[in-house]
Amino acid sequence: MNSTTGPAAGPAAGAGSAAGFSRRALLGGAGAGLVAGAAGGAVLGRAGAAASASAGQPGSGQVGGGQVPFHGPRQAGIVEPQQARVHLAAFDLLPGAGREELRTLLRRWSGTSARLGRGEPADEYESRIAADAGPCSLTVTFGFGATLFDKAGLAGLRPRALDPLPDFPEDAIDRARSDGDLWVQIGADDALVAFNALRVLQRQAAGTAAQRWQMTGFGRTPGATARPMTGRNLMGQVDGTNNPRPQDQDFAAKVFCGADEPGWLAGGSYVVLRRIRMLLDNWENLPEDRQERVIGRRKSDGAPLSGGGEHTAVDLAAQNADGTLAVPADAHVRVAAPASNGGAAMLRRGFSYHDGTLPDGSPDAGLLFLAFQADPRRGFVPVQRKLARGDGLSRFLRHEASGLYAVPPGAPEGGYVGQALLEG
């Protein structure tokens, strides 16, 4: 939300070396994921990955040929450029399924995700949905909800930061579309490739876990613009300008867990999910200059109202000629700014969604907000509290689903995600 629709926040505890994601940054496209599209080196990174794809292979064009390795110190789908399509889903363990069944499922899911990420058949439950496509920068990311640990006999290993998120003012959370034992994020630059991965994982879960909820989102397709640029959300605002960048010295400490977490989570992360409906009819009735004052940025290019270009730092002390604040007191960028929140920052990775219309005729559309961070207690929670109290943008948003998940580190070749938790 910072920059347009979400929190900015979270000082980090932890260490984690930037070297953990450098290999993926080269193969999957350099740069951090942005809220509503790929920025900067994202298109160039994918083009580089595509150029290395074998000639004559399915999907060997620039979009289809992009590959992101599944195995590595970090899970894929966190620091890589955002893809054009995403499926988010949560699963609950079935009665009678415990630690052993969970281990079998995660081993199966990890093997399948690695094969699909290379553009290979899934082997099991393959329906040839995407048989003529390449990997299309497919990533599959797994997380664990708080409820998983008791069910799997792992209560003593549940991290303290995984306590349920508190209720925030004006929340309208549908618990049937929230939480869950297992969280899955599937991203790809082709809708069929993303759907195929989801369908295979759903079928492999049968008998062990049942899907609790599923959401589908989208962003800008690589190559859709003549020049790489920060994407826009459904409010038309440039969104994601202030995201932390992997080249920042403190990036890993903001995003990845350190030695103060249980050993199985060191080098992993936490992700907050919020399904945020935008009240687009109300928003679109505002004059553009009023929209800009709600956000604190120009709509045309994302530059702050305090002056400069999109990437110019917001000057919260700047004044207009009449002495009023250039960036209004309740502007989103002011309330969400790291300077207003003790330097807090999170890696936001959100996607737009549109699920038709509501009974009153208004669009059921908005943002699938995702934020990766080292500690949600010092990141998302305090910043969202502040946004709920004083953010002018909150009048145009409804938070309707929510979740918090521990995201384990990546799996080595031959291993699976969560292995240190289940076998440590």
Automatic annotation (TrEMBL):
Sequence ranges of Gly residues compositional bias: 58-67
Catalytic activity: heme b + 2 H(+) = protoporphyrin IX + Fe(2+)
Top EC class, one word: oxidoreductase
Cofactors named for this entry: heme b
EC numbers: 1.11.1.-
Biological process, per Gene Ontology: iron import into cell
Cofactor binding: number and manner: Binds 1 heme b (iron(II)-protoporphyrin IX) group non-covalently per subunit.
Taxonomy, superkingdom: Bacteria
Name the record gives this protein: Deferrochelatase
Lineage: Bacteria, Bacillati, Actinomycetota, Actinomycetes, Kitasatosporales
